[in-house]
Design goal:
- Residues 102-384 form the Membrane insertase YidC N-terminal domain.
- It holds the Pfam family YidC_periplas.
- It is a multi-pass membrane protein.
- There is one protein chain.
- The chain is of the alpha+beta class.
- The protein folds into 2 domains: 2-21 and 378-590, no CATH class; 31-84 and 98-239 and 252-371, Beta-galactosidase, Chain A, domain 5 (Distorted Sandwich), CATH 2.70.98.90.
- The protein has helices at 2-27, 247-251, 356-362, 376-393, 396-410, 412-427, 429-439, 443-456, 465-484, 508-523, 532-549, 554-582, and strands at residues 57-59, 84-86, 101-105, 109-114, 119-129, 137-139, 149-156, 170-171, 175-177, 184-192, 197-206, 211-220, 226-237, 261-266, 270-275, 285-289, 292-296, 300-306, 311-319, 325-331, 335-337, 342-353.
- It is elongated.
- 38% of the residues are buried.
């Protein structure tokens, strides 16, 4: 049975793929970071308070002996990005350093801003329930110790008149809401210095958007020029493993196989991922123009999108402690503000779902954060096709069915050749049995006689391989799309299928697929090329395969169920034509079929 044999090969390939990804998950856990290097004695002018957070970048007041003798300046006279290092002081628990909190609610986001530093410390995506039928929304940013993940920003200056993420800001009110009909919402946080320097950190929220604008505006009311450097960073811990209620929930959890870590993009280096265990041994330290940096997890991400056409210094760090924190930072170019003048540094923060069709329009290469890996060449157009069919039907399950039908129409010629070849081989079974009796254990002569018979009867024994070569990448590509596409997260189909990205809770689709395999065996019970071992394996396949499918996303099982029905229909039609032609009655129009 060529179809069942193809399924066996697919099952073996898929099991190998899952074993490999699970091995990566189990044995590539984040390494314990080495303690941060102590600050050089040459950096004596660097601020050093007892409560200094190790995650705060600092400016070296004096150069190291082997370093450049002075901070370099650009053609305009503005100092370029300063040399930076991580302090060796022990960081406090993040939740212990809060100031008054400010809550901002839009139609898609609810964020909490800490007035200490103006950092975003909590986020809820209002359109995405944490669990099916749950009233709680997905939380990306969090200030809890076990799930700590925040977006921080600040300014650096050698004279100390600059607010970093520890500085205390003031907001006019403790909550802001985007009102009906209102397109944008501005939230200002203000910091002032005794020297007369004032900084206004303005967040701008837009209706329907997961992009938050950030403008750090400096009003220099002092008597001398102010020079500073803006920075933005994402900082998080590795959260504990999720707790599953049962065995099926654990092994059907697709987040186990998705990338979790930091990512960055640059026009020259393109898209790059950094696993947490690579932070300490292979730290990022690169100047990038027109790129972005992010922290990614299954379905969702946070990304700083710096100003385009301005070079930023991208770097990664491990903040030591009992629960290590992993940090990715961009340090912007320095700028100078004359006395009585005003200047600002702008950036954007994306905090939301990984919607591939929308991310590319937000920033170049941001859509690559939905990473399909080696199957991108097939998965990306398949995602586009699924999205287009969903636009027509409004149902992702129907979109999958339409994709199956389209693929079967495109592959009909290959499948028909496969079934005709299988039918001819089945017809030759008595002659094959006779050859086996004649040559006994002489496998070489048996093989030669078999190939001569195939040549004489114009049978191509590898005809069934061609559809399989197409089917395997389509199978893995669709599995990757279903696993990585947030659009299919909690997407219902019909009846009991409430989430196409999760396993069928009642195993209905796997059982239906078992029926399809049994029907396939009934149409094509045996082929002449099968030995006794292969025949036994094929008899057990209708039982083995539904067990595999019990852990697959129901959308993938739906794909294979519909695909199996299409293949059964094609097989029945081709066999009907073949039998009619073989009996001398001819197919449609009384014409005999051409040999495969």
């Amino acid at each position: 049975m060529p179809q069942t044999r193809s399924f066996l090969l697919l099952a073996l390939a898929f099991v190998g793929y899952l074993l490999w990804t699970q091995w990566q998950h189990d044995y590539h856990t984040p390494a314990t970071p080495a303690p941060a290097a102590a600050a050089s004695s040459a950096s004596a002018a660097t601020p050093s308070s007892s409560d200094l957070d190790a995650s705060v970048p600092s400016v070296d007041g004096a150069p190291a002996a082997s370093a450049t003798s002075a901070a370099p300046t650009s053609a305009s006279g503005v100092p370029s990005a300063p040399q930076q290092h991580i302090q060796a002081a022990t960081a406090k628990t993040p939740a212990d350093t809060h100031g008054p909190l400010v809550t901002v609610t839009t139609d898609v986001l609810r964020l909490t801003i800490d007035s200490r530093g103006g950092s975003i410390i909590r986020s809820a995506m209002l359109k995405y329930p944490a669990k099916l039928k749950s009233k709680d929304s997905v939380q990306l940013f969090s200030d809890s110790a076990s799930h700590f993940f925040v977006a921080q920003s600040g300014l650096l200056s050698r004279d100390g008149a600059a607010p970093d993420q520890r500085a205390m800001f003031h907001a006019a009110q403790d909550s802001y809401t985007l009102q009906p009909g209102q397109k944008t919402l501005n939230v200002d946080l203000t910091w002032t210095d005794a020297s007369g320097v004032k900084v206004v950190k303005r967040y701008t929220f837009t209706r329907g958007s997961y992009v938050v604008g950030l403008d750090q505006q400096v009003d220099n009311g002092s008597a001398k020029a102010w020079t500073g450097w803006p920075y933005r960073q994402l900082q998080r811990v590795v959260p504990p493993e999720p707790v599953h209620t049962n065995f099926l929930a654990k092994w059907s959890d697709q987040s186990r196989y998705s990338f979790f870590g930091a990512a960055w993009y640059g026009p020259e280096d393109k898209f790059n991922k950094i696993k947490f265990d690579d932070f300490a041994k292979d730290a990022l330290n690169k100047k990038v123009t027109g790129g972005w940096m992010a922290m990614e997890q299954h379905y969702f991400m946070a990304a700083w999108l710096p100003q385009e056409k301005k070079a930023q210094q991208f770097s990664t760090h491990v903040v030591d402690g009992s629960n290590p924190r992993y940090l990715i930072r961009e340090l912007g170019p320095g700028f100078q503000v004359a006395p009585g003048a005003t200047a600002s540094s702008q950036s954007r923060l994306y905090v939301g779902p990984k919607l591939r069709n929308e991310l590319g329009g937000i920033a170049p290469g941001l859509d690559l954060s939905v990473d399909y890996g080696m199957f991108t060449v097939v998965a990306a157009p398949m995602h586009m096709l699924l999205t287009w069919f969903h636009g027509l039907t409004g149902n992702w399950g129907l979109a999958i069915i339409l994709v199956v039908l389209l693929i079967n129409v495109l592959l009909y010629k290959l499948n028909a050749a496969q079934y005709r070849s299988a039918a001819k081989m089945r017809k030759l079974k008595p002659r094959m049995d006779a050859l086996k009796e004649r040559y006994g254990d002489d496998k070489q002569k048996l093989q030669q006689a078999t190939m001569e018979m195939y040549k004489k009867e114009k049978i191509n024994p590898v005809a069934g391989c061609f559809p399989l070569l197409v089917q395997i990448p389509v199978f893995f590509a669709l599995y990757t799309v279903l696993r990585e596409s947030v659009e299919l997260r909690q997407a219902p189909f019909i009846g009991w299928i409430h989430d196409l990205s999760a396993a069928d809770p009642y195993f209905v689709l796997p059982i239906l697929y078992m029926g399809v395999m049994l029907l396939t065996q009934r149409l094509m019970p045996m082929t002449a090329s099968m030995d006794a071992t292969q025949a036994k394996i094929m008899k057990w396949m209708p039982v083995i395969y539904p067990v595999f499918f019990a852990f697959f996303p129901s959308g993938l099982v739906l794909y294979y169920l519909v695909n199996g029905l299409c293949r059964v229909a094609q097989q029945w039609w081709v066999m009907r034509q073949f039998d009619a032609a073989d009996n001398g009655k001819g197919g449609k129009g009384g014409k005999k079929l051409k040999p495969a």
